[in-house]
Amino acid sequence: METAMTTTYQLLDGKRCSEALKLEIATAAAKVKAARGRAPHLAAILVGDDGASRTYVEAKVKACEEVGFRSSLIRLPETIAEDELLDRISGLNTDADLDGFIVQLPLPSHIDPERVTLAIDAKKDVDGFHPVNVGNMVLGLPCFLPATPSGICELLKHYSIETAGKQCVVVGRSNIVGTPMAILMSRNAYPGNCTVTVAHSRTKDLASITRQADILIVAIGRPEFITGDMVKDGAVVVDVGIHRIPDSSKKRGFRLVGDVHFEEVAPKSSWITPVPGGVGPMTITSLLLNTLKAASN
Ligand code: NDP
After folding, report:
1. The CATH fold of domain 146-279
2. What is the 169 CA–ligand 1 centroid distance (Å)?
3. pLDDT 10s digits, 20-64
4. pTM (two decimals)
């Protein structure tokens, strides 16, 4: 009879890792300020008043304060015309006092996110979404890496997770998470040198693919979708998803879960990210790293 192996898992603690990185960023930011006479400066454009987007942007602004960066939050009305938003972006592109900026997604449906991404000067695109940065990433040239995949790489590095020669399965192929993650894990670098499989909504028998993963990275946007039976014993599991699930036992009326069913998957894993406190804080810290890089260039 086959029995499931239970391992003692360890947490890939994004909160802890990001705190350590933030100390290094703060030291570097102070040096930039001493050399240039001003601190690194990040701006964020928030269009409309979506609650989740506001929370994300405010967390980014707070993180800037923690490391001694200057930050500017530009709130624009939901009804803003696309051309007007593009004008604002053009102004930020030429603002010599600003090192980098982001436009918080999602945008209202009347605004084309591709036009917005293309309008941002690649040298200030600290989200790493502009095609110039994506192309340079693919070629292994200097660029701003997209924040979430880059944060995951930093987390794997922080915990010295071995990646060379491993089977890595990335579930999800979005432009901001799954696709760049797969590229980074297959490049000739550390972390990297994995044999990477990308799974998506058309993948047949997903469980048979995910069970092959030594390193499983999940970014699909479906709460607790990856269950224990889909994971190999001893796998390293990175959960990008974040969802609010109604829970009357909580003061806030909800709890946060990821795309991975933590209670089932953790006992089978060697390392796993918690939700919250895993990938989320690392994403914000990567944005700070990109801004520091922009300010240092
Ligand atoms: P998208 O919705 O853009 O992409 C989801 C991907 O998952 C798509 O490629 C889709 O396939 C695939 N997918 C959907 N359903 C299935 C399925 N049943 N089986 C296999 N693949 C499936 O999401 P994002 O990449 O932007 O985000 C994913 C999750 O990560 C979300 O929960 C989001 O909130 C979270 N997130 C968290 C961040 C953080 O900092 N913690 C940052 C960014 C995102 P197809 O292409 O075929 O449609």
Report:
1. Rossmann fold (3.40.50)
2. 14
3. 999 999 999 999 999 999 999 999 999 999 988 999 999 999 999
4. 0.95
